[in-house]
Amino acid sequence: MRTQRKNRIIQIKPDSPQWKIQQLFGTWAGNLDRLPDADEIRRNPPRSAPLSVAEMVF
Asked: How far apart are CA 55 and CA 20, in angstroms?
């Protein structure tokens, strides 16, 4: 016999801080998959890592 689960839907109001955090995380996660266009690549040329981070690399 299958067990039945009761599911609840939690509704978050748009004026709450939790909703704003989830929106920011959603846009950030959506931008991870986006490929940069040619203009963005020209504006952000590759740079060497700062010295404070160099220890983590090597």
From this structure: 36
**4, amino acid identity:** Q
pLDDT digits (tens, 9 = 90+) for 42-55: 898 888 878 887 77
Q: Which two tokens stand for residue 1?
A: 């016999």
Distance set, CA 15 to CA 8, 25, 30 (Å): 21, 16, 22
Structure token pair of residue 27: 């846009």
- Residue-wise pLDDT for 4-37, tens only, equals 888 888 888 989 999 999 999 999 998 888 888 8
Indicate whether this model's pTM tops 0.85: no
Chain-centre distance of CA 22, in angstroms?
10
